[in-house]
Design a protein that fits this description.
Blueprint lengths: L31 H11 L14 H7 L5 H9 L4 H4 L27 H14 L1
């Protein structure tokens, strides 16, 4: 972690830098306003989308009541079938308490969400 001359961990003293002070972390080369606007416009970097378009009642009955009962009961009998009937085999969990966030220090769990979203994008694209 970067430890600036002022002795406070996790903060970079922009007044000691010869770079622009418009970004909160100029020594890291961040373009804060552009990055914030991009993420704000998208309201995050990932989304959840259904694989099944709900066109009519027959489709709804397959994916909800009563159709959802069959896979639920099958998974209850044989838990490993959850890989066959759900998204379980296609998911990962990215978890952080925010205490060591890529050189930023302890920024908290909510502040690490953009980094976790980006990690998801990398895993999904290149994994």
């Amino acid at each position: 972690m970067h430890k600036p001359e002022n002795g406070k961990q996790g903060r970079i003293d922009a007044s000691k830098s010869n770079q622009s002070t418009s970004a909160p972390f100029p020594a890291l080369g961040l373009r804060s306003q552009e990055d914030l606007e991009y993420r704000k416009q998208l309201r995050g970097m990932i989304s959840v989308a259904s694989k099944v378009p709900l066109k009519d009642r027959s489709v709804l009955s397959l994916v909800y009541t009563p159709g959802v009962a069959a896979p639920c009961l099958e998974i209850a009998k044989a838990p490993l079938t959850s890989f066959d009937y759900t998204l379980r085999g296609n998911t990962i969990a990215l978890v952080s308490d925010g205490s060591s966030a890529y050189g930023f220090g302890n920024i908290g769990p909510l502040a690490t969400l953009p980094m976790l979203e980006d990690a998801y994008i990398h895993f999904k694209t290149f994994g």
